[in-house]
Amino acid sequence: MAQTAKKDEKQYQLYRDALNLFAEYGYKKTTVADVADRLGMTKGNIYFYVKNKKELYHRTIHWALTQWQDHVRSAVAGQTTAPDRFNAMAEAALGYIEGNKVFRRLLIRDPEIFTLDRDRDRFPEANRAARQIIRDILDQGIREGAFTVRDPEAATEYLFSIYMMFLIQTFVYLDKKDFRRIFASALALNLGGLSSPRPPKETSHDRCHVKGP
Predict the structure, then answer these.
(1) Average pLDDT of the residues in 76-91
(2) Is-contact 156 138, C-beta < 8 A?
(3) 167-177 burial, b if ≥16 CB within 10 A, otherwise e?
């Protein structure tokens, strides 16, 4: 048990320090030796965890995405109703990137970490997990009667896609003008829809039974 915990801690340190180096210098300029030096290890120690730099990069990015998702799950778990969980999910996902300089720098260096093309998705497992967070909230909202979603699978894909496009536009292309206001409007739109609830139509039967003063 203690040995497993120690290995987990070493992996955490490896991915954390590798993430910082990849974000600062990019994939091409960062070497396995750089990561080993940052950790006070030898290159041989690094190869105990990964086969090569490519695998180190892939595992590091997957770890970073998982850290992000764990933060979102924690925020979602703190709420009870589906609308509150949807709100918490969106706010936590945006806030994590907004407050994480290393993660933002990494996205600028490697914009295709966030991609809408499934054939070019290098992190399908992580993105499936992200979609599942959305799907679970939608399913809960349908059960509660809070969401009127006819096709939750399609709705999940739609919400995931527009959210990714927003993150790409904001943090990859650095179009941050009014992004908080746009985000708030989009969130309200997703939760409330375009159409306001209409009162039921008055029928001739209703009119005939209206009581006078």
Answers:
(1) 96
(2) yes
(3) bbebbbeeeee
Q: Which amino acid is at 194?
A: L
* Least confident among 9-23, 53-67, 173-187: 173-187
Reading the block at residue 80, the tokens are 């009870």
Phi-psi group of 110: left, alpha or beta (phi > 0 → left; psi -120 to 50 → alpha; rest → beta): beta
Which residue shows structure tokens 């190869």? 47
Q: Domain limits at 104? A: 2-192
Do the domain assignments include residue 213? no
Residue 191 has which token pair? 């939760």
* Per-residue model confidence (pLDDT) at position 210: 47
1: which 2 tokens? 């048990």
pLDDT value, residue 213 = 47
Cα–Cα distance between 73 and 63 in angstroms, integer?
A: 15
Instruction: Answer yes or no: are the C-beta atoms of 39 and 17 closer than 8 Å.
Output: yes
Q: Residue 82 maps to which CATH number?
A: 1.10.357.10
Confidence of residue 5 (pLDDT cuts 50, 70, 90): low
Residue 198 placed within a domain: no
The answer to whether the beta carbons of residues 64 and 106 sit under 8 Å apart is yes
| CA-closest candidate to residue 137, choices 183, 96, 81 | 81
